[in-house]
Every structure is written in C-alpha cells, then in structure tokens.
C-alpha cells in the first residue's frame, strides 16, 4: 500500500514538473524537483501573471497559499565552522543540507520571496521562488491573488526589509514601534542595536545602545558514552 501511494505521489510530481516546464520555461522560469518537492523560480516582473494562472488554470488550481517568507542569501554556502566531515554526529550534522539551485539568481539578487502553494483539487504542492534586487528589494504583492498573503508579506517586510508593491497595509508586524533595521538580515547584529529597560524614576521605558559584546555562539555538545570516559574511570569500571 505504501509503495502504491509513493508511486502515485512520484507520478504527480513528475506530471506537475513536466507541465510547468512546458508552460513556463519559455518565460524564463526554472523548474526543479528535489526531495519530493517541486520548485519553480519565477522572474519577479512576471510573478503576478504566472501566479494568477497557477491559481485559475484547470491544470494547476493552486487556490491556497500555505506560507510566504523572505530569504537572505548573503554569504550563502559559507560558514564559520568546518562542517565537511563527521556530519553524522555532533552539532554540525544539521548543516549537512541539500544545497538549492540558485543558478537563476541575478548578480544583485540578494533576497528572495518564497511562496508555498497547495492544490486541494489535484493534491499537489508547489514552491514558488522569486529573487529580489539587493539595492531595491521590491516585488509585487500577491494579496490580490491569495488574500492570505497579507500578514506573510508584512512579516517579510518587517524582518527582511522586502517591500511589496500594491500591499494594502504594509507596516511592521512583529518588531517594536520605532525599531531600526530588519533583524533577519544576515548583516543585522545578533545582539541587536538597542536595548530597553524600565526606569522607575522616569516611570517609562528607556531605549539605549546595546551593551552586549558581539560573539559567535558555538554550542557545547556533551555526550554521555564510553568514548569520553577517562582511562582511569574505564579501568575501575572493568574491574
């Protein structure tokens, strides 16, 4: 039964990928399949037209937006730690990940917006990705296509500074009033830029420059097994 379901799922993915390539490859879209998921990179100037077709066309019918989020590709693929070996154990096992294809990204396309779509009619999922220019991170809002994108786009604006042209109410949604910067950008300091405290004498909240020292947090891994028991302890245990 599981094999039959798996086979049907694979066939759906292959059919979806073939249909997307046939329809949109000539429009500059790049379609890939990996880890049981189909991803299509869409040129940002064609996002609205293609998204509308994906929602309305009978071959696709992606009528529901599950999620939308921003990505910062600054320093993508680089790391402060060597993680090429021993990926099956220790903290570095989490970074031995599938590297996505970013060949469709332009030279100045530091940011991207990712949309996760669901077709309940065809029981299919699709990931859309569109890259955004670093100097002018602006892309069209899809709120007019999927109403549920409203808060997702506000979140991407707040955390990444990506602006969505045509959004009905583009303002911060998670950070505090007067917050400076976008905390999910790679160049935003981990310690932040300001700290706040309540001043009893002034009876109000005070904002001041952060006083924490910048540092890289490397997790300490403690394993309770015989590989880390001293020789003396091991001898006493054997006795």
What features would you describe in this structure?
With 239 residues, the protein is of the alpha/beta class. The protein has a single domain, classed as NADH:ubiquinone oxidoreductase Nqo5 subunit (Beta Polymerase, domain 2, 2-Layer Sandwich). The protein is 22% helix and 23% strand. The protein contains four helices and nine strands; from the N terminus they run H-E-E-H-E-E-E-E-H-E-E-E-H. The chain has helices at 2-24, 47-56, 149-160, 231-238, and strands at residues 30-34, 37-41, 64-72, 111-119, 124-132, 138-140, 163-165, 194-199, 204-209. The strands form three sheets. A five-stranded mixed sheet has the order 1-2-5-4-3. The chain is globular, with a radius of gyration of 24 Å. 19% of the residues are buried.
The rounded Rg comes to 24 Å
Under the CATH scheme, which class? Answer: Alpha Beta
Basic shape:
globular
CATH homologous superfamily (4th level) name: NADH:ubiquinone oxidoreductase Nqo5 subunit
**Total helical segments:** 4
Total count of strands: 9
**Largest β-sheet summary:** 5 strands, mixed
Level of helix content? 10-25%
Regarding quaternary structure, what we see is single chain
User: What's the SSE pattern?
Assistant: HEEHEEEEHEEEH
List the strand order in the largest sheet.
Answer: 1-2-5-4-3
Overall average pLDDT = 82
Structural class: alpha/beta
Count of distinct structural domains: 1
Share of residues in strands: 15-25%
* Amino-to-carboxy terminus distance: 53 Å
User: What is the CATH third-level topology name?
Assistant: Beta Polymerase, domain 2
CATH architecture: 2-Layer Sandwich
Contiguous low-pLDDT stretches (5 residues minimum) are 86-98
């Amino acid at each position: 039964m599981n094999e039959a379901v798996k086979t049907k799922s694979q066939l759906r993915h292959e059919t979806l990928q073939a249909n997307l390539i046939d329809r949109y490859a000539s429009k500059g879209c790049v379609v890939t399949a990996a880890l049981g998921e189909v991803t299509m990179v869409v040129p940002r100037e064609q996002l609205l037209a293609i998204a509308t077709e994906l929602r309305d066309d009978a071959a696709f019918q992606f009528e529901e937006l599950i999620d939308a989020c921003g990505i910062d590709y600054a320093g993508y693929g680089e790391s402060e730690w060597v993680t090429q070996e021993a990926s099956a154990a220790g903290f570095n096992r989490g970074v031995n990940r599938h590297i996505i294809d970013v060949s469709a990204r332009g030279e100045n396309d530091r940011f991207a917006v990712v949309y996760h779509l669901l077709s309940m009619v065809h029981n299919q999922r699709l990931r859309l990705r569109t890259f955004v220019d670093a100097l002018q991170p602006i892309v069209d809002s899809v709120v007019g296509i999927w109403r549920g994108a409203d808060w997702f786009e506000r979140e991407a604006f707040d955390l990444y500074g990506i602006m969505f042209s045509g959004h009905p109410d583009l303002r911060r949604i998670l950070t505090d009033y007067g917050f400076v910067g976008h905390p999910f950008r790679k160049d935003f300091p981990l310690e932040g830029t300001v700290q706040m405290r309540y001043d009893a004498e002034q009876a109000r909240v005070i904002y001041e420059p952060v006083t924490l020292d910048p540092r890289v947090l490397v997790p300490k891994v403690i394993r309770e097994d015989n590989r880390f028991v001293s020789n003396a302890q091991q001898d006493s245990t054997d006795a």
